[in-house]
Structure formats: structure tokens, C-alpha cells
Design goal:
Layout (H helix, E strand, L loop, with lengths): L1 H29 L4 H13 L5 H17 L3 H14 L4 H13 L3 H14 L4 H13 L3 H13 L10
Helix pairs in contact: 1-2, 2-3, 3-4, 3-5, 4-5, 5-6, 5-7, 6-7, 7-8
Length: about 160
């Protein structure tokens, strides 16, 4: 009986270690540039049930970015929504959701997200430039020119991208 119990305990400990290693590997792939692997890995991280809200926000963000990279903006937007819900101070999530909305032709909605990204990081040149592109897509050339000039003039980002 003790031998069976010992085997059960050791097996449980081994599986726990293997799961942790697997989750660690999933995190590595969740930051990858390969969209297919990134989507699978981030999904595994999200469904693991073992992440802090901050880390979950990064996993949703990365998966949303991969969907967007594949041109699947309608699938990306809910992931960016989740990233923002988990971390409302995440300028990259607002910017990337704006890009996805712009990809869906929803330029006014994209502008709202770019504006929020810029409020969170006033020197976020990419968000400022994207804001100009959205205004340009709506035929607001003077407004677009203002944002393009501002993007060119801003200094370095105030906030580094979140990992």
C-alpha cells in the first residue's frame, strides 16, 4: 500500500513539473513571431487557469496580434478587449485594437482607441501616426497632417512595451 502511495505521489510531482515546463514553453511560443504557433501557445496559456491578470492580458494581446497579422481582425478584437479589460493601462492593446478596427473599416472606433493609447503614452509615435491614418481614411486631411507631423516630432515612448 505504501509503495502504491509513493508511486502516486512521485507521479503527481513529476506531472506537475512536466506541466510547469510545458507552460513555460507555451509562454515562450506565446511571444513568438510564428502566428500559428503563437495562437496555439497563447490559447494554452489562457486556458491554463494559472496566470495572473497581468500575464493573461499579455497572452490575450499576443494572440490578438497574431489574429490581426493573419488579417482576421474580427477575431483579434475580442482578444484585445480582454487584454484591455485585464489591464486598462495597456497602450499597446488600445493601439492594436485600433489597427484591427481600422482593418474592419471602423475608423472612428479606431480613432477612439488611438486617442486612449496616446493618453496613456503621449509619446507613442506609432499610435499617433495610426491616428493620422484613420483621420485620413475619413477624409479629414488637415487633421491627419497634424497627427503625422506630431508623430514625426515626438520623442521616445514614455512607456516601454509590456512583455
Amino acid at each position: 500500500m505504501r509503495a502504491i502511495l509513493l508511486v502516486a505521489v512521485l507521479t503527481s510531482a513529476f506531472l506537475g513539473t512536466a506541466t510547469a515546463q510545458t507552460l513555460e514553453q507555451q509562454w515562450e511560443w506565446c511571444r513568438d513571431d510564428n502566428s500559428e504557433r503563437l495562437i496555439r501557445a497563447c490559447s494554452a496559456v489562457i486556458h491554463s487557469g494559472r496566470q495572473t491578470p497581468d500575464k493573461l492580458a499579455r497572452a490575450f494581446f499576443n494572440r490578438g496580434r497574431a489574429w490581426s497579422d493573419k488579417g482576421l481582425n474580427a477575431r483579434a478584437i475580442p482578444d484585445f478587449d480582454q487584454a484591455i479589460r485585464l489591464d486598462p493601462e495597456y497602450p499597446d492593446a488600445f493601439n492594436n485594437r485600433g489597427v484591427a478596427y481600422a482593418g474592419e473599416g471602423q475608423y472612428q472606433r479606431a480613432i477612439e482607441d488611438y486617442d486612449q493609447a496616446i493618453r496613456l503614452d503621449p509619446n507613442y509615435a506609432i499610435a499617433i501616426y495610426n491616428r493620422g491614418l484613420a483621420a485620413q481614411s475619413l477624409g479629414r486631411e488637415d487633421e491627419a497632417a497634424k497627427y503625422f507631423a506630431r508623430a514625426k516630432d515626438v520623442g521616445p515612448r514614455l512607456l516601454p512595451p509590456k512583455e
